[in-house]
Specification:
single chain; 119 residues; mainly alpha; 3 helices; 0% strand
């Protein structure tokens, strides 16, 4: 339902309430926030479904249901895209770091070889 791999907290998780409090001090969204948000939307859809039947599909309640569904879908899409972009950035940063370390390792070996030639 939510993003499959939300941003991991640097602080060890202490439950949903702890995740929500920690999310105030961290960028991104963590697992606790996703659980509470999805639960709130589930409650909203449950109430809107009841209202649809209780009002015999009043046009205003239908419009509110469609707006809520659009909001829920757009939030879920945004979280997935943000997570994918963060993962892509992390992978490219790791790749760049490994390339830099291999390049500096190669330069160090070349400088050692030059020093040996001088001796």
């Amino acid at each position: 339902m939510g993003a499959k791999s939300p941003q991991q907290s640097s602080v060890k998780s202490s439950g949903i309430l702890g995740d929500i409090v920690n999310s105030i001090f961290e960028p991104g969204v963590n697992r606790g926030v996703l659980i509470v948000m999805n639960g709130a939307f589930a409650g909203l859809f449950l109430i809107l479904t009841y209202l649809l039947f209780a009002t015999h599909f009043n046009i205003h309640v239908c419009a509110l249901t469609l707006i809520a569904a659009g909001l829920f879908a757009s939030i879920q899409w945004f979280i997935q895209e943000a997570t994918a972009a963060k993962n892509k950035t992390a992978v490219s940063a790791t790749l760049e770091q490994s390339q830099r370390s291999s390049m500096t390792g190669g330069k160090a070996a070349a400088s050692k070889a030059q020093k040996k030639k001088k001796l």
